[in-house]
Amino acid sequence: MDRVDDGAAHRTVIDAGAWLGFDRINSLRWQTDEVRAARLADLMRSGYADRVVLSQDIATTTRLLAEGAPGYTAILSEFFPRMIQKGFEIQSLEVLVRRNPWRMLMGEGE
Questions:
Q1: With 0-12 CB in 10 A as exposed, 13-18 as middle and 19+ as buried, what is 109?
Q2: What local confidence, expressed as pLDDT, does residue 110 receive?
Q3: Which secondary structure element, helix H or strand E, spans residue 20, and what is its range?
Q4: Beta partners for 22?
Q5: I want to staple 73 with a disulfide (CB 3.0 to 4.6 A). Which of 23, 49, 77, 84 is the partner?
Q6: Which residues of the chain have pLDDT under 50?
């Protein structure tokens, strides 16, 4: 859903009971990380952080660290600092990459 620049659509998905995934962090193909960060900030400020997960859809070697790209560290090294600039603390952001994936995979929050 990170391709969709529509906070109302994001909230509708979560309100329907689904998990919302922003799974193309650091990929500019469909959206910028600035737009993703703005939409995520809106969701978090509206109390929806407990149903959002983040990931990186790395499907080509050109996005790997060995090729000069951020690789698998982009969420922590580039996206989280952007969110911290928006006023979020690292503990609230870790929920998106630690607690929520665990809950989603274990079937909690259904």
A1: exposed
A2: 60
A3: strand 20-22
A4: 54
A5: 77
A6: none
